[in-house]
Write a structure and sequence with these properties.
- The protein has 151 residues and is an alpha/beta fold.
- The chain has a single domain, classed as Rossmann fold (3-Layer(aba) Sandwich).
- It is built from four helices and six strands.
- A six-stranded mixed beta sheet has the order 2-1-3-4-5-6, sandwiched between helices.
- β1, α1 and β2 form a beta-alpha-beta unit.
- It starts with 6 loop residues before the first strand and ends in a 14-residue tail after the last strand.
Length: 151
Amino acid sequence: MSNPPDLRVMIVEDQALLAMELELVLGESGCDVVGCAMDRAGAFAVAERERPDLALIDVNLLDGLTGPQIAQRMVGDFDCAVVFLTANPEQIPDGFAGALGAVSKPFDEATIRAVVVFARQFIQHRTLGETPRRFRLAPWLTTPPADIAPH
C-alpha cells in the first residue's frame, strides 16, 4: 500500500498534453495534483481554491509572459514553492521571482521526479538537497545574506 500524497501541486502550463504528462508523473511521485491552469486568471483561481504547496509554472503562457507574475503572487500571497518550466531560459526573470529554480523544456520524467524530491525537501525542511540535473537553481538560494556592518 502506498503512502498518501504529501505535496499538493498545481500545474500552470498552456500545452495540454504536457500538462497531462506532468500530472501523471507527479501523481506517480506521491503528489496530489490539485489543479491545472493555462493562464494567469486560471492559476490564481486554482491557487485561491486549493492553496498548493508547489506550483510548476511555464514562463510564457497563453496570455503572454505572465509566469513570473504568477510566481511572485504564489510565493508572496500563498507561501507556495515555485519551479519554472520553460523552453526559453532567457525569459526567466532575474532573481527568479522567488522561484526555487527552473527546468528547461524538453525534460524527461526523471528530471521532474528529481525536482519533486528537491522541492519536497525544501518545503518540508527548508534545506537544499542535491540539485537535479537540468535544473537551474535560483540565485537567492545560493547567495549568503549580506553581513550587516557594525555601527
